Amino acid sequence: MTDNEQLAGIYPPSAFYFKVKFGDCNETVDTSFQEVSGISSEIEVESVIEGGENRFVHQLPKGVKHPNLEMKRGIASLTSPLVKWCKTVMEMDFIESIESKAIRVFLMNENKEVIRGWLFDSAYPVKWEIESFGSTKNEVAIEKIVFSYTFSKRIV
């Protein structure tokens, strides 16, 4: 943490003000979400036992793995570009090739300035779920969209 971050009051940053961008950085449609989760990386390891050495087991790195990226929001209309993309992937029986897009998630401060950011490359929807309805609840109808992606990196 730098002195500037401490003085600006952005450490630790709050997690409730964020924005999401799909594809081209100039796209601003369909970027409001209630929740984003799955921003994580983990090194997969392989256990190797050394012959004659019984005190420990070597843990050798195999590669980096990422969980799926999950986003929740109120159910959008059929005219939503994100809904159209999900429908194309989920309902077209792979007649057309799946179009992947970059997804960027930005954490914002109170002045609408980006303070952290992550890029998820070559992402596409792999699950599109509508959360349960309940006649005794007074809640917004929520859709959850889960994305697979090739790799992620912190960009800010």
Automatic annotation (TrEMBL):
Top-level taxonomic group: Bacteria
As given in the record, the signal peptide range reads none
- What InterPro entries does its record include? CHP02241 (IPR011747), Phage_T4_Gp19 (IPR010667)
What molecular function terms (GO) are annotated for this protein? structural molecule activity
User: Which Pfam families does this one have?
Assistant: Phage_T4_gp19
Q: Which NCBIfam families match?
A: conserved hypothetical phage tail region protein
PANTHER family given in the database record? CONSERVED HYPOTHETICAL PHAGE TAIL PROTEIN (PTHR38009)
Q: Under what name is this protein listed?
A: Phage tail protein
Origin species: Nitrosomonas supralitoralis
